[in-house]
């Protein structure tokens, strides 16, 4: 074999080795790119999840603030009405002080509501930006991007469902309050007190305003007057929470027992305490207590 042939073989071997090293380098780069995209995808998904949690928390805060603001608006409207109908200067001055205080509280809540809503919009925009950023990842992360796209679509659908549920809850509340008004025969001012109580209970307890309105309706059906309903509601709520039972059904049972034993609405708290003690200390449920009271009450009345 000539020196020329040996040189050619050596050159081919060196070229093959060079091509091999170049191929390995490209493979390493590809793997590095895949790993980097995987990191970016994971980080983006984590950020989207955190953002979603923040939106959930802010949405709950916004609902609470708006409910409190609505109570203040109703209070302000009532104070303004009283101011117009009052002619005593001393009384008008006191009402005016209350108006100023209520307006300040309402302004503070309105600013808090606006700031919270603005923050929610900012977070929603960041979610959209995160989704757009994922679309720019190269083909090596296509599968991960697709999964994130599905997750983002599901997130959008979930928020659409939340909005729909809020609209439905508002409609249910209005229907429940209309029933309370019809059954109780409350005057305009009495109905406003009942409505304000239902809204406040919905904003400050584990129950919704609609559930509170349903409970008021059951008490009204039992013959409770406005003041009696308002007095009885705290005890009914405590009993429903202890029994982990529907608030409307709890009000129905409690009102039946009060009526059966000819007790006053003011005694609701004591009665519900006794009932809670009874079913938590024995193998008895609220439903069973509700069924048992009828014959006992009948004998006592006789």
Strand and helix map with partners:
Elements: H1 3-85, H2 89-135, H3 142-184, H4 188-204, H5 209-221, H6 226-243, H7 247-260, H8 268-280, H9 286-301
Q: Count the E strands.
A: 0
Largest sheet: none
Strand content: under 5%
Q: Helical segment tally?
A: 9
N-to-C span: 129 Å
User: How are helices and strands ordered from N to C?
Assistant: HHHHHHHHH
Name the structural class. mainly alpha
Mean pLDDT: 76
Poorly predicted tracts of residues: 143-152, 295-302
The Cα radius of gyration reads 33 Å
Dominant shape: flat
Considering DSSP H and I runs of 4 or more, what fraction of the residues is helical?
Answer: over 70%
Kindly describe this structure.
The structure is a single chain. The radius of gyration is 33 Å and the shape is flat. α1 runs parallel beside α3 (142-184), α3 runs parallel beside α5 (209-221) and α5 crosses α6. The chain has a domain at 174-302. With 302 residues, the protein is mainly alpha-helical. It has helices at 3-85, 89-135, 142-184, 188-204, 209-221, 226-243, 247-260, 268-280, 286-301.
What are the key terms here?
disordered C terminus; 302 residues; mainly alpha; 0% strand; 9 helices; 87% helix
Task: Describe the structure concisely.
The chain contains 9 helices and no strands.
């Amino acid at each position: 074999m000539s020196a020329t042939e040996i040189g050619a073989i050596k050159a081919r071997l060196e070229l093959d080795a060079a091509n091999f090293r170049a191929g390995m380098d490209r493979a390493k780069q590809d793997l590095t790119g895949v790993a980097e995209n995987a990191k970016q995808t994971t980080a983006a998904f984590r950020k989207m999840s955190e953002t979603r949690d923040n939106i959930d928390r802010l949405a709950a805060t916004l609902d609470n603030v708006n409910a409190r603001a609505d109570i203040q608006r109703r209070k302000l409207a009532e104070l303004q009405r009283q101011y117009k109908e009052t002619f005593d200067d001393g009384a008008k001055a006191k009402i005016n002080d209350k108006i100023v205080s209520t307006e300040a509280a309402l302004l503070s809540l309105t600013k808090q509501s606006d700031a919270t809503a603005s923050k929610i919009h900012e977070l929603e925009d960041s979610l959209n930006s995160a989704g757009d950023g994922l679309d720019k990842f190269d083909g090596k992360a296509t599968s991960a991007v697709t999964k994130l796209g599905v997750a983002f679509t599901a997130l959008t659908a979930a928020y659409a469902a939340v909005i729909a549920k809020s609209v439905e809850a508002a409609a249910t509340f209005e229907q429940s309050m209309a029933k309370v008004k019809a059954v109780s025969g409350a005057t305009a001012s009495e109905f406003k007190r009942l409505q304000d109580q239902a809204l406040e209970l919905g904003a400050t307890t584990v129950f919704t305003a609609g559930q509170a309105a349903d409970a008021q309706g059951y008490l009204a059906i039992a013959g409770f007057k406005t003041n009696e309903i308002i007095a009885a509601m705290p005890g009914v709520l405590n009993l429903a929470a202890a029994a982990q039972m529907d608030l409307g059904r709890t009000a129905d049972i409690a009102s039946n027992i009060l009526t059966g034993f000819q007790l006053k609405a003011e005694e609701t708290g004591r009665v519900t305490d006794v009932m809670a003690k009874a079913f938590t200390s024995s193998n008895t449920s609220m439903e069973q207590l509700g069924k048992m009271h009828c014959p006992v009450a009948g004998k006592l009345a006789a």
